[in-house]
Amino acid sequence: MKSNLTATIKGGQIPHGKVRVSGAKNASTRLLAAALIADEPVTLMNFPTELVDARYKMDFIEKCGGKVQVDEIEQTVTVDSSNLEDRLLDSYDFPIRTTYLLVAGLIKRSGIARIPYPGGCKIGDRGYDLHMMVWEKLGATVTEKPDYIEITAPKGFSPGEINFPISTIGGTENALISAATIDGETIIKNAYISPEIESLIEFLRTLGAKIDVVGNSFVKVTGASKLRGSLFNVMPDRIEAITWIVYGIISGGNIVVEDVPFDTMEIPLIHLSHAGIDLYRNKNNVIISPECLVNGKVQPFELACGTHPGIISDMQPFYTLLGLHADGTSRIFDYRYPERLKYCEQLSKFYQGGLKWQPGTITTYGNSNIIGAEATSTDLRGSMALVLAALLAEGESTIHNVEMALRGYNNLEQKLKGLNINIEVY
């Protein structure tokens, strides 16, 4: 779990080979936290075991008495929460963005949860007020301490009604996991339903919770005080899939991307088609080669990032990269996270004059020369975009704080080697 890592990358390497999409970061880390409410062991298969975010969360779980068994070869994680309890730790310095999801398991067993303040990416305002609302609506008392957030519910959470003022992924996840521990009915209104949340709902059902979803935003949860164990498969990562697909397109390489979750990527892939890209695919895999470009070049495009089933904001940096390699001017709009722009300044070092940005809008000018540069990571997906730009550039590049990319891409260095790409991380 090193920090301040630097990558030295030689540009001009053309990828060829196969890369398999790992279990989804945004599903696996949530399932890991949700496993804490089970009264029997839980085994998560297709788990991205080298994911740095997951390792931090495992460390916190073990410090609170839980047992986590990791099998890197089989890509499985087994969680035994029978001895989990709230403990006053010497330090709450954990760079975990979704610390709030750890609360339900601790409340269930101890009636109190002391968790680190949410950490993670600096991509705009991501407060935790909605999570405080969830806990309070379920009967808990929340106190903000200097080093941690303290949530108390001596008899556990109680049934309630949660009406989110805005759609929220993290808030919906928190409400679902917490409600599953309650022996009674909880209503969640204005919930956010994404593929990862659908997976979480299915997992909670395997534990014994009854969950009904009406439309796209109304959820009724009937939980239970006793929840069984589970053997559950983590869905493939749609953000990782689009990362490798875009890289294959703009690199001129010949690659096969395996285990692509096409059913969760319909609209993102339609936008690739509209940019003049014709992908050759079967049920699970896609082959990418220069022949995918119908006119020999990526065509300019305009698109807007938003909620599922559209292009989510985590995919934005890779469509920005695609636009930088298009034959003309492209525009990417993001009104959900309009301040997700910090990486643009760093990316522009590789594409001088090829990129302009303002809140909510990124404009790219294709056919720019790509030169090696020294850049600093600002967020997880932006960091990966910098790595890809460095691989495409002329000359050698240096990427600082590249651990941000390692946080979200399981076994990244080994996967690049599988594509005959080498980077040096130190």
UniProtKB/TrEMBL annotation:
UniProt keyword annotations, A-Z: Cell cycle, Cell division, Cell shape, Cell wall biogenesis/degradation, Cytoplasm, Peptidoglycan synthesis, Transferase
GO function terms (MF aspect): UDP-N-acetylglucosamine 1-carboxyvinyltransferase activity
Pfam family, one: EPSP_synthase
Cellular component GO terms, alphabetical: cytoplasm
Catalysis performed (reactions): phosphoenolpyruvate + UDP-N-acetyl-alpha-D-glucosamine = UDP-N-acetyl-3-O-(1-carboxyvinyl)-alpha-D-glucosamine + phosphate
Principal subcellular localisation of the protein: cytoplasm
Biological processes per GO annotation: cell division; cell wall organization; peptidoglycan biosynthetic process; regulation of cell shape
Cell cycle keyword on record: yes
Location within or outside the cell: Cytoplasm
Domain (Enolpyruvate transferase): residue spans on this chain: 16-416
Protein family according to the UniProt entry: Belongs to the EPSP synthase family. MurA subfamily.
Entry protein name: UDP-N-acetylglucosamine 1-carboxyvinyltransferase
Taxonomic lineage: Bacteria, Pseudomonadati, Bacteroidota, Sphingobacteriia, Sphingobacteriales
